[in-house]
Fold this protein.
Amino acid sequence: MTVFPTETLHSSLRGLSIWWQVLFPALFPFFVISELLLGIGIVHFFGKLLDPLMRPLFRLPGIGGFVITMGYISGYPVGARLTAQLWEQRLVNRAEGERLVAFTTTSDPIFLIGAVSIGFFQNVALAPVLAAAHYGGGLIIGLLMRFHDRHAPPSSVDKNRAVAGEARKRRPSRIAEALKAMHDARLLDGRGLGRLLQDAIQSALKLMIVVGGLVVFFSVVMEMLTHAGIVEAMIEALRYLFNAIGLPEKLADAGIYGLFEVTLGARAAGTAGTGLMHQAAIAAWVLSWGGISVHAQIASLLSKTDMRYRPLMLARLLHGFIAMALVYLLWGWMAP
């Protein structure tokens, strides 16, 4: 930073611009809305409705269905944020939280379609292939993660399922039970709508400052590694590997940039010029891995819980390779 002060300043401003112009307007409303929905009890409502589906498929309580929906719609790191909140309220335990974070850490559709398919590849017809590979790979990870920490006890929510089963005859319907769960959660929260909105905005702003700081930090780190020649050395090493396994060497740039930051990696994939199929495959890997910058954001969100980072890292790595393989498998049917 002392040797390259101008580049340091420009990279900081670039990271700040990405945060202010892209991430803040995209993520801040979702953070506020998620806080409000938790306080109102909507999350508990959907938890009761989705419990019969979530438990056999993913070994998760039904409340995880809300996190999956929000995570896939709004992108990383919203899934991790919601999971941490559920853990704080003791609605999921460590094993369930780790399973949930592992496959709700995905790109949002707006970024996948607008930025990657249209902006970087200039080919909107590529979006269905990328979406099928990326989100399909995420669901596969969810199914695989049901075997994670198999001997962990279920959360307290699920310990009551047997009691709930005995009382099923007295319940008018699952909808009525879900409404009651929402009402009970609202009473337990106890905050008025004005206080709830104020707390939601304050919490979302604190989180956005953390996200912005990490984006600026990794923007500077990438710039310094590039000027120090470390990035180029890593690219050269990856080129040898790609050449050995039959992949175009030019994709190594996207692989290394995507290792650190998803936007840089996706942009490099779109301009690699090695053939659309291979470029789409490496873009799917970049989107599914998420970049160390996103990993740092998620790790900061999980730092106040007992959830571990290692299962997330392994799941992201596996998700990247699954998504990459799905692009090649689906290309014959969905090629743009």
The chain has a mean pLDDT of 85. The longest helix spans residues 5-40.
